[in-house]
Sequence to fold (119 residues):
Amino acid sequence: MNPEHPRTLATPCPGSGPALSEAICEKRADHVLIRARGEFDYDTTDVLRDALAALDGDLAVIDLSHVTFADTALVHALLDARAERELVLTGPLPHHLQMLLDETGTRNCFVYTAESNHT
Fold:
């Protein structure tokens, strides 16, 4: 992909599908944007894990603004990913995700950026 052109190519990440959750990957010049959408719990978080595992060490920017439900399985997936690669969360984060990160004491474990910087 030519980094001088702002267009992006959106393709489904491995494991994503028409289920309750999806992760759409967009390769950018300096990172991969993963748009997480839907519900992320024990049964569906593998969609995001598979998307992250398919990246070749690229910076992963995860847009969580369209996550409609999440439990600690999502928090664990994000913490595991952070241990393996550079990870940035973008949003705006839904209120329920902010509360989940606060309740689990993990909000300060992540780097956040304004939506306009990476999406």
In short: Residues 1-11 have pLDDT under 50 and may be disordered. Residues 9-118 form a domain with the Transcription Regulator spoIIAA fold (CATH 3.30.750.24). The chain has one domain: 9-118.
